[in-house]
Amino acid sequence: MFRSLRFLNAHFEEVLGSVLLAVMAAVAFVNVIVRYCTSFSFAWSEELTVNFFVWVVLLGTARAFRQGTHLGMNIVYEALPRPARRLCYWLGCLLCVVFFGALCWTGTLEVLDEYELDSISESLGVPVWWYTMATPLFSLLIIARMCQRSVADLRAGNF
Questions:
Q1: Residue 97: which of 44, 147, 152 has the closest Cα?
Q2: Across-strand partners of 3?
Q3: For 129, which of 31, 74, 82, 84 is 20 to 30 Å away at the CA?
């Protein structure tokens, strides 16, 4: 049982992202078929796919930070001496934590506002905060994955 939990911890982003992409593709495919074969269209399909796309992007960002495959300026970074690389590495980590911390904070404020205002989505009629709660939660996940990568890089001396 614990082995499966370890797999989920290590591959959480891939599993959830894959499920969301599969749902998005299935919904879009069915909507296209129904729209071209009948005069009917699923109005809710765009709402679902757009919101799930935001979730997938944030999950992909967390995965990239966990594996150390996020976008970087390697040519400039590799040309620097080791102390300057270390400084750039930690400065980049600090800036990313500040950015995703601010995204988490503003996302939390948005979720609280939507909850207090009882905002309902137009197509599905579900509370909007169900969609937007992913922004602060996945921002925290990104920060956690960034810290995991930083600790691993620190231990390995990857600068």
A1: 147
A2: none
A3: 31
> Rounded to whole angstroms, how far apart are CA atoms 56 and 64?
12
What pTM did the predictor assign?
0.86
CB atoms within 10 A of CB 31: 19
The residue extents of the domains of the chain are 2-156
- Residue 48: CB atoms within 10 Å: 21
CA distance 8 to 21: 17
- Going by C-alpha positions, the residue among 48, 65, 51 that lies closest to residue 13 is 65
Cα–Cα separations (whole angstroms), residue 45 to 6, 8, 95, 104: 34, 28, 36, 27
Look-up of token digits 């001496």: 81
pLDDT tens digits, one per residue of 25-74: 999 999 999 989 988 888 899 999 999 999 999 999 999 999 888 777 78
Task: Give me the count of residues in the chain.
Answer: 159
